[in-house]
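Re-run requested by the PI after the first attempt was lost when the workstation crashed. Everything re-entered from the original request form. Ligand of interest: adenosine-5'-triphosphate.
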Amino acid sequence: MAEKLVEVKHLKKYFNAGKPNMVKAIDDVSFDIYKGETLGLVGESGCGKSTTGRTIIRLYNATGGQVLYQGKDVHRIKSKKELKELNRKMQMIFQDPYASLNPRMKVVDIIAEGMDIHGLVKNKTERMEKVVELLETVGLNEEHANRYPHEFSGGQRQRIGIARALAVNPEFVIADEPISALDVSIQAQVVNLMKRLQKEKGLTYLFIAHDLSMVKYISDRIGVMYFGKLVELAPSDDLYKHPLHPYTKSLLSAIPLPDPDYERSRKRIPYDPSVHQYTDQDRPEMREVAPGHFVYCSEREFEQYKKEYENR
Ligand SMILES: Nc1ncnc2c1ncn2[C@@H]1O[C@H](COP(=O)(O)OP(=O)(O)OP(=O)(O)O)[C@@H](O)[C@H]1O
């Protein structure tokens, strides 16, 4: 069994807790991320994906539950030194590389900022050497070091964002919709770059996306979120071939297909959340329908899903 790098246990994040406008952005979510894998996290806008990423990395405090990183409770670390080290090990890549890169800083300084903070370079020469190496790793070159973010295309800017994350030798990278703002032709390039870097550097990814079209190329397993809940979690292939939760089926039916004729004739399956109004007796929870394939369901639904899976 692969080693667990991240364990998310009954995590809750409520915004405006106790107020009338309270939002349960994460409502009792549990999952593990194994060392070296890519876990995809999908769901429509507002379902709590970004909040999950940000709470794992402690950009947000949790309302309840735990996040363990290599067995350590992330939200209970008190020592500044330990926290700084954790901030090095866990890096984030953002959706909009333009908004996340300081427009007044040169690329060299953007990339080297983390190395400076963590004391990873001895002098200016080594700093520049490392930056150039990183630029080359992500498919850019030395000439780009002294330019500003606005001089780059969206895809190039995302490469800079990736170089910045890699600069501090992280173990775990949370990529929050890293390709959503890019042209489709560029999306595949960035995904391929991320896959190559994962192999070379033994990285573990949490890859957040709002639809299921691109995540399948990078994810080993995929979790589907709906309104603050994780509703299905399965190996990618199994999720695409045999989705069980009605919301997952609906999301899959929304992926655009390359064949225009087929695309026109295909119907989007609507999702009706009212069929999942549970009472306490239903004891809804993540239940393992097939090895590694979990669905959020009641005991009664569990039996139905098992039958559906057996007859697949
Ligand atoms: N800082 C905040 N204060 C109050 N509510 C928030 C805050 N951040 C997020 N929310 C709310 O929490 C819920 C989940 O938001 P979140 O951004 O995690 O969803 P998401 O699935 O990542 O969506 P998107 O793809 O649009 O970023 C939404 O209802 C959102 O309005």
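Saved to the shared folder this time. The chain is about 35% helix and 25% strand.
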